[in-house]
Fold these 2 entries.
Entry 1:
Amino acid sequence: MDMIIDFPGGARVDAHFRGQTIATDQPPQGGGEDSAPMPFEVFLASIGTCAGIYILGFCRQRGIPTDGVRIVQRNNRNPFTGALEKVGLEIQVPPTFPKQYHSALIRSAELCLVKKTLENPPTFEIATTEVEAA
């Protein structure tokens, strides 16, 4: 899948694909207007939402309501480098959630493609090309 990344103004950078747009911006201290999440925040959110898709699918397949189910994602960064060192996903369920499925929820979340991609990262190729203005 190709994505088109463009620069609509200010510190905004948008990604376009499948008829969708993901907008990003920077906070004022980064020269932006804080009109959208920062790119790194979108990246972090993709981890928890991907795990959530697998949990949702598990519950749907078994007819288990997801009312009161949520994921708390804790992103721990190195205080010196700012690099992401650990991501914790806590799946919170209400007392009525079937206890026999607690470990299955964890296994479902572990199927997340974003998590698997981070565990086996792709290579990157970056190049420039010249194109005529549209």
Entry 2:
Amino acid sequence: MKILVASHTYIVDLNREKLRALARLEPDIEVTVVVPRRWRPGGVQNRIIETQPSQEGSFRVVPVANFSQNNQGLLTFGTEIISLLRQFRPQIIQVEQGAKSLAYAQLITLNQLLGLKAKNCFFTFWNLPYEVKFPLSLLEGYNLDHTDGLVAGNQDGIEILRQHGYQGLARVIPNLGVDKSHFCPQPQPELQSQLGIQADEFVVGFVGRFVQEKGLLTLGKALAELQTKPWKWLLLGRGPLQSTLKEKAVEWGIQDRIIWVEAVPHKEVPRYINLMHTLVLPSETDYQFKTLSAVGWKEQFGHVLIEAMASQVPVIGSDSGEIPHVIGDAGLVFPEGDVEALGHCLRQLIEQPELAQELAHRGYERAMFKYTNQALARQQLDFYRELLLG
């Protein structure tokens, strides 16, 4: 099976692990990843990533000249994409830039003009309702009309595109899995001592951006009301809400219980997760639907949840977006913004160590079965096979 995947996401080598795993599943699988040759991540001025080609057996990364260096929707590829398609002749073409992407329309059209007869599919993480107006509605309509299969990072993404008229094959498969060799149980006595965490302290952890929509104020209030064994709040990350959090911590009288850790390299994150007795993702939906667009945010997946689960750390999450689907029955879920409900979840884990142990086990099993790069690669291959049979 010849598979071509196009996305700016894979300019980062770490993000390619699922596709590497896909290429290794069976001897006849070839995976070619098309990435922009030049990309400005986050639109940062004066920072351009120059992507280099690479090949590892039947897995290769091919940088192609591109138009637009910082806009996913406007990204398109230069004429060399034509010779690549002619030479490779993929059976599956997957573009991971969303339903309204020019790159997807470009690959659909070249698929037709070159007579490749490949199956067209795309990936999306977008999970808020939206409307489109002319001429963008024509682009989306063209893309959806020529789509054989949809891969979404969450359940809401599929439902929204069903409302936009897509009726074909669809699956929820996140584009990035968890590295089980990196995120795994690893005792960290030295780091625990370095951060001043005592053996009897229950460590509540958060990893991510310090912003309003991540629900950190709700978590802070819930912790401030805990009347139980000693605890510490380990905050790993950074963001504009940090100054507010520090002010509130003083107001709540918990400033001495917080451990602040600036963002660390990704390879160091497992060390901090392994200090936690629970990881909490208390995200809160911030959404307004205007006449022609959606403004706001809703948790699209919550990757840190599967990292904690793979590390055998029990997880607690709000019911924002995809979080309940990621956790399933392998953790605790509370209504977003509900301080009392979150406090109850925390007390359950603190007061019932057997429950915490059971959830840690369930979370690990769920992560290994469903969310490793190898597991996601197998799901992707099953999806492609179903496409080719259709």
